Amino acid sequence: MSLLTTLNDDIKTAMKSKDKDTLSVLRMLKAAIQNEQIKTNRDLDGEEELSVLSREMKQRRDSLSEFEKAGRDDLADKVKIEITIVEKYMPKQLSDEEIRQIVQRVIDQTGATSSKEFGKVMAAVMPQLKGKADGNQVNTIVKELLQERE
């Protein structure tokens, strides 16, 4: 079953239960996927749907950090609820240790020896972790492991 079908079913459920917060987030996710379909002029596969979800999650996490910096707890609370809803449709997130193992394996495969090769490592590791780990978290771990090699 495609993500779009799941979202449609969940939208119906949210409408019946009058859950306005969930309903608005699900509609935003559905719209984002449909917009991407219009752009590509075809149905999206699972990987492309995951990319759209990842982008939506990143936007919400960025908004959350900005709202917290600005002391806007009212808006931060709303975004936290949205993040919780979007997380239900994302694959299970990897732990720090699992990310470290994957990054270490990629560093060994690419032969990277310094932080100058950061871009090469990130380019190789991100497709493997797409949707399964936050990019900022991966970024930090890659920098840390490359600095240990210097």
Describe the protein.
It is built from 7 helices and no strands. It is an all-alpha fold and 150 residues long. The chain folds into 2 domains: 3-87, Hypothetical Protein Yqey, Chain: A, domain1 (Orthogonal Bundle); 96-149, Arc Repressor Mutant, subunit A, CATH 1.10.10. The longest helix has 24 residues, at 46-69. The protein is globular, with a radius of gyration of 18 Å.
> What would the CATH topology of the largest domain be?
Hypothetical Protein Yqey, Chain: A, domain1
What is the CATH top level name of the largest domain?
Mainly Alpha
**Helix/strand order:** HHHHHHH
Unreliable segments (pLDDT under 50, ≥5 consecutive)?
A: none
Distance between termini? 47 Å
Structural class: mainly alpha
CATH architecture descriptor name of the largest domain:
Orthogonal Bundle
Large-scale geometry: globular
Overall domain count: 2
Strand content: under 5%
Q: pLDDT average, as an integer?
A: 90
CATH H level, superfamily name of the largest domain:
Uncharacterised protein YqeY/AIM41, N-terminal domain
- Count of helical stretches: 7
Largest sheet: none
Q: Total strand count, please?
A: 0
Fraction of helical residues: over 70%
Roughly how many Å is the radius of gyration?
18 Å
Pfam families: YqeY
GO molecular function: carbon-nitrogen ligase activity, with glutamine as amido-N-donor
Organism: Enterococcus caccae ATCC BAA-1240
Protein name: Glutamyl-tRNA(Gln) amidotransferase subunit E
